[in-house]
Amino acid sequence: MKAEDKKFFEAKAAVLKALAHPTRLWMVEHLESGEKCVCEFAELIDADFSTVSKHLTVLKQAGIVQDDKRGKQVYYSLKVPCVLNFIHCVEAVLSARAKEHLSMTGLSDRPQNK
Amino acid sequence: MKAEDKKFFEAKAAVLKALAHPTRLWMVEHLESGEKCVCEFAELIDADFSTVSKHLTVLKQAGIVQDDKRGKQVYYSLKVPCVLNFIHCVEAVLSARAKEHLSMTGLSDRPQNK
DNA sequence: GAAACGCTTGGCAATATTGCCAAGCGAAAA
DNA sequence: TTTTCGCTTGGCAATATTGCCAAGCGTTTC
Questions:
Q1: Nucleotides of C under 7 A from a protein CB
Q2: Alpha-carbon gap, residue B67 to B78, rounded angstroms
Q3: Nearest chain A residue (CA) to B2
Q4: Domain range for residue B112?
């Protein structure tokens, strides 16, 4: 792998890493319906204010969300909406896995090859 | 957030986490052109055989790839090809970020709002 | 059978991530 | 100006990830 390519893969992995956390993923999906302030997130999940803020910072650094300070509040919004599409793909991975797991445990009604 | 939802987000985050590593991302993209054996990966990147094997195990556990042992070799292939689409979205995040960075450093030829 | 091959697993030290508490900080309200 | 509000940052301990070496294990070749 060339050094240049390596950098590219590191950059892409960093974006994915930002999304690879339950809370952050939840935040991103939540932003589908429009911008939210930090306090809204803090209210909805049971976590310290600082924790929420740090998660949002991670998403911001990754370039996934953007912030906008208006008055007392800071509003976060999705910067690259296509991330939502690909979360659907992740769900496809999960359902493929679930189906397989069912067939392994013999709980499925899978068709037998004779 | 409901406990059931929480589980769901944890599961999705786990899939993303599996992809969130430069080497594993590289492997997944490399599998676009068809199945590869462990030795091919080990040869292409400069890493221990065991390291390669462990990365592939992570991808397998996540349900992203599948393995097939034939003769001496184990062949890995993509199980859910849609992951490739969403890597393109990650690249969109990167290019959005790059563009912005250019404009911040004044190196761009961005159109000025007057 | 013995040796070689291709790969996986155990173990472990180095490193990174996470989430809480406490402290800081700018804008707005008093 | 002082206080409050909304949020960010520093610090830190608990936890997870990473990648190497060494050892194990099933096939195939000799």
A1: 5-11, 17-23, 26-29
A2: 9
A3: A45
A4: 81-114
